[in-house]
Design goal:
By secondary structure, this protein is of the alpha/beta class. It has 7 helices and 19 strands. The chain folds into 3 domains: 93 residues, Beta-grasp domain (Ubiquitin-like (UB roll), Roll), CATH 3.10.20.30; 93 residues, Translation factors (Elongation Factor Tu (Ef-tu), domain 3, Beta Barrel), CATH 2.40.30.10; 129 residues, Rossmann fold (3-Layer(aba) Sandwich). A 6-stranded antiparallel beta sheet has the order 11-10-13-8-9-12. The protein binds flavin-adenine dinucleotide (FAD) and FE2/S2 (inorganic) cluster.
Length: 335
């Protein structure tokens, strides 16, 4: 067990073998900055002042050569080989409301949602709760490095973690999940993580924007909205963007929620409809559809969005240009 000290904050915590410095710090209740947890965003970087670390993912895109030479490391990928002293900014808004924990999950069911999105349901040996909009890490057997996947369900006891996952062309984990994992098989799970969770206390209507694989956390938020006493009387607008008709997803799930058509509204936009889609709905990118649907009322919404980085960046830019305060934007970029 290594001790990690952050001298500037007068804090130290234990990092067990096999755990990363970021995840051990979050498990200890510390406010350490991060976003993706998979080596891509660079938000978790720290400076190593003393000690030795090893990276689980040495070529991770979240750190460039210049940063590596300046003794920077990614907290989400660094194992401590000795006691360490590190320097990083601490922020209370990164403290976990529910401390992340590791568990084993057994696959209990798989459901096809579209031609390339499936829902995978796991039952945990040691349940841990999560908030709607958060994500967990799945360690897929035979694949190096855990992947982040957002929950699509809600749970009182944390015993069930469900994820809607898109098959990525040549993607190692998603291909293994789709082609190899069978009901009854075990994976390692770790979570919850993420800050794009539903704010039930925010006094506004809700907008959920999902692009492609971003479906899962928006479904979790919509399900929580439908069940929430606190959010009674509010509205939730759900906008989904896909390429062509076979990508359309989410409407059937939302239709099953109480309030569909009265307080919950679904819209879809296709960026590249196929000829045989006979699509008469909105065309274009999802951020354009959002602007068209909500127009001047955008700043009156708490906005949640998830999907590939170009989509999340376009939604963010559009929202800021339309005077939505940054504090009302909650998102995960799906690297
Ligand atoms: C916060 C967050 C939430 C997400 N939620 C969802 C979701 O709900 N549904 C969904 O379909 N997708 C989601 N994703 C995307 C998902 O995590 C994967 O990136 C995607 O499934 C492609 O993974 P792959 O292994 O198939 O592809 P690959 O191309 O094999 O892997 C790409 C991803 O794996 C990481 N990676 C690659 N090698 C390593 C390694 N050695 N160690 C550690 N990491 C490595 C990369 O940084 C990249 O993120 C989410 C991503 C993030 C960051
Ligand atoms: S949180 Fe570590 S690189 Fe994104």
């Amino acid at each position: 067990m290594a001790t990690i000290e952050i001298p500037a904050a007068k804090i130290s915590f234990e990092c067990p073998p096999g755990d990363t410095i970021l995840r051990a710090g979050l498990r200890a209740g510390l406010g350490m900055a991060y976003e993706c947890n998979v080596g891509s965003c660079g938000n978790c970087q720290f400076e190593l002042l003393e000690g030795k670390v090893e990276s689980l993912y040495p070529e991770a895109p979240g750190l460039n050569e210049r940063m590596r030479q300046r003794n920077r490391h990614l907290g989400c990928q660094s194992l401590a080989l000795t006691d360490c002293k590190i320097k990083l900014p601490m922020r209370d808004d990164y403290k976990s409301l529910i401390l992340p924990a590791r568990a084993t999950g057994h696959l209990t069911a798989i459901e096809n949602l579209t031609h390339d999105i499936r829902e995978f349901r796991f039952r945990l040996d040691k349940g841990n709760r999560f908030l709607p909009g958060q994500y967990g890490l799945i360690g897929v057997p035979g694949v190096v490095g855990a992947r982040a996947y957002s929950y699509c369900n809600n749970t009182a006891d944390g015993a069930e973690w469900h994820f809607q996952i898109k098959r990525m062309p040549n993607g190692k984990a998603s291909t293994a999940l789709f082609d190899q994992l069978k009901v009854g098989d075990a994976v390692t799970l770790d979570g919850p993580y993420g800050n794009a969770y539903l704010r039930e206390d925010a006094p506004r209507d809700i907008l959920c924007v999902a692009g492609g694989s971003g479906l899962s956390p928006m479904i979790s938020i919509a399900r929580a909205f439908a069940a929430s006493e606190k959010l009674k009387g509010r509205k939730l607008h759900f906008v989904y963007g896909g390429r062509s008709g076979r990508d359309l997803a989410g409407e059937a799930i939302l239709r099953g929620l109480p309030g569909f058509g009265k307080t919950i509204f679904y819209y879809a936009a296709l960026s590249n409809p196929a000829d045989d889609d006979n699509w008469t709905g909105r065309t274009g990118f999802v951020h354009e559809a959002v602007k068209d649907i909500l127009g001047a009322s955008l700043p009156e919404h708490e906005i949640y969005f998830a999907g590939p980085p170009p989509m999340t960046e376009a939604v963010m830019k559009m929202a800021i240009e339309n005077k939505v305060p940054v504090a009302q934007l909650h998102y995960d970029r799906f690297y």
